[in-house]
Inverse folding.
């Protein structure tokens, strides 16, 4: 074992992001710094700086001996993401960031501030570079999958957002992130281990993690049934969002190709099991696409499928489609959207049309990365 101040660094494996503090739980961090020849409490100091003060530069950590700061930073806080571009809208309360990962892959996050009776800040994060689900109306789905993101790469998006807020870079003055949604690039359930680990880092009390309430975290999926069932056993209180987009198998096979593996009924049954196990109401995400899936009869069918599985377990979020350049898919007419919503409400289902922030800054997931690839 090296002596204090003589850190030994583990070489980075080709093709894998460098190990980072956020990849590890508290015990793992303490074990790592001990292996590096430092006392275990150094891990707690590092965690406090990173998760509570949003500091990643060890040279700013003045409670660490100057002789070990550089080596500790290289070993525990390597640079994983770098901002390529920021785009802002909504008078500066919405900021989309294009990130370059350590290997050059591009991903996106969107920070959205909502002011009113209480200040709420939501960050939408990516969990994969690209996506392998191949949904034809989604910009990310047309990229294909580059790779899974590590736990720390996911967490870094949120820490960076928290740093922007704390520094007053977002309109409205200093603030804190209250909600995290895994609705950016990628299929979260296809990167299950890293996503669940990231959820734990985000929700562990500071300084072990960021201290965001579990009920403020939403994990989306296109319907990977086995992963939904696995998530229901994790003892987490996060919201599950099922990206359904069609209530009938014939159309959903086209819009969400994973439906050829798990059909609509199977996905909805898994979502209901998640509610039964966790008590957390499930969100049904439904992108309204003109003349494709926005017919009133499809709203009626969806309403019947949901109420057949009970009352009070689900909430529907119709989403006006943010079309990608050159795509044949576009948003539904407002009157058609209103009819769709009214049809669902007639079944007693709560419905909220999604706020489509960022449409003027390539706000749909994957658009900015595709344009800059």
């Amino acid at each position: 074992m090296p002596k204090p101040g003589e850190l030994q660094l583990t070489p980075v494996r080709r093709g894998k992001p460098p190990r980072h503090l956020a990849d590890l739980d508290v015990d793992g961090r303490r074990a790592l710094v001990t292996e590096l020849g430092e006392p275990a409490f150094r891990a707690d100091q590092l965690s406090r700086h990173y998760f509570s003060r949003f500091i990643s530069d060890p040279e700013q950590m003045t409670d660490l001996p100057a002789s070990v700061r550089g080596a500790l930073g290289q070993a525990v806080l390597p640079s994983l993401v770098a901002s390529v571009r920021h785009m802002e809208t909504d008078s500066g309360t919405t900021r989309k960031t294009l990130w370059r990962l350590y290997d050059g892959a591009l991903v996106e996050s969107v920070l959205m501030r909502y002011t009113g009776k209480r200040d709420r800040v939501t960050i939408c994060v990516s969990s994969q570079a690209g996506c392998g689900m191949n949904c034809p109306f989604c910009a990310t789905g047309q990229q294909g999958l580059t790779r899974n993101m590590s736990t720390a790469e996911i967490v870094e998006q949120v820490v960076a957002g928290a740093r922007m807020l704390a520094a007053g870079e977002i309109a409205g003055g200093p603030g804190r992130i209250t909600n995290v949604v895994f609705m950016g690039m990628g299929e979260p359930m296809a990167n299950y281990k890293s996503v669940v680990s990231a959820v734990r880092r985000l929700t562990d009390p500071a300084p072990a993690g960021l201290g965001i309430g579990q009920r403020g975290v939403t994990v989306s999926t296109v319907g990977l049934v086995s992963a939904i069932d696995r998530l229901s056993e994790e003892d987490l209180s996060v919201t599950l969002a099922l990206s359904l987009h069609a209530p009938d198998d014939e159309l959903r096979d086209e819009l969400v190709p994973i439906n050829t593996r798990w059909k609509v009924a199977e996905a909805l049954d898994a979502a209901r099991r998640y509610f039964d196990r966790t008590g957390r109401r499930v969100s049904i995400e439904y992108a309204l696409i003109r003349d494709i899936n926005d017919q009133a009869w499809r709203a009626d069918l969806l309403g019947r499928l949901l109420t057949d599985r009970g009352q009070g377990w689900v909430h529907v979020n119709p989403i006006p489609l943010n079309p990608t350049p050159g795509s044949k898919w576009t948003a539904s007419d407002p009157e058609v959207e209103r009819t769709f919503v009214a049809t669902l409400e007639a079944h007693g289902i709560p419905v909220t049309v999604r706020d489509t922030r960022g449409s003027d800054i390539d706000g749909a997931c994957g658009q900015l990365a595709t344009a800059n690839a």
User: Anything to note?
Assistant: The radius of gyration is 21 Å. DSSP finds eleven helices and eleven strands in the chain.
